[in-house]
């Protein structure tokens, strides 16, 4: 067997600090707070009231008053014309029913110029019947821009329900 080597003991020691004349750091300098916005006083600039008439004089025209904004009022349905479309006979026999949402283009005269199914009822026959009926029968008070009638858009829902 091989003898185990001897492990020397670790050295124990201390660090000795010799005192020196160490000066303490200087005291902190007082800081001056930045000026607050409320403390700022703008300079007074004097402007002559009468314009100069020399070659280098500049005259600024008075700004024209801006017209008030023109208000756009939406179209309003004429309820007497908003009748329910005739139920397609084939759809009635097959028991088809549902609700569709229409996107309408309304002319300046209040007539429905274009209608398209935005959300289908699930049955093409019902969607087509509603589109054709609305274009032929429904009327609106047109949208107004100021006092002038203008074209606009609206959405409407048509429900087909069997009783």
What radius of gyration results from the CA coordinates? 44 Å
CATH architecture of the domain at 79-160: 2-Layer Sandwich
* Count of DSSP-assigned helices: 2
Taking the sheet with the most strands, its summary is: 3 strands, antiparallel
Residue share in helices?
A: 10-25%
Runs with pLDDT <50, length 5+?
none
Give me the side-by-side strand order of the main sheet.
1-6-7
- Terminal-residue CA separation: 108 Å
How would you describe this structure in keywords?
163 residues, 3-stranded antiparallel beta sheet, TolA/TonB C-terminal domain, single chain, flat, alpha+beta
Write the layout of secondary structure elements.
Elements: E1 72-73, E2 76-77, H1 89-94, E3 98-106, E4 112-119, H2 124-137, E5 140-141, E6 143-145, E7 148-150, E8 152-160
Antiparallel strand pairs: 1-6, 2-5, 3-4, 3-8, 6-7
Description:
This protein is of the alpha+beta class and 163 residues long. The chain has a domain at 79-160: TolA/TonB C-terminal domain. It is built from 2 helices and 8 strands, in the order E-E-H-E-E-H-E-E-E-E.
Short synopsis of the structure:
The chain is of the alpha+beta class. It has 2 helices and 8 strands, in the order ββαββαββββ. The protein has helices at residues 89-94, 124-137, and strands at residues 72-73, 76-77, 98-106, 112-119, 140-141, 143-145, 148-150, 152-160.
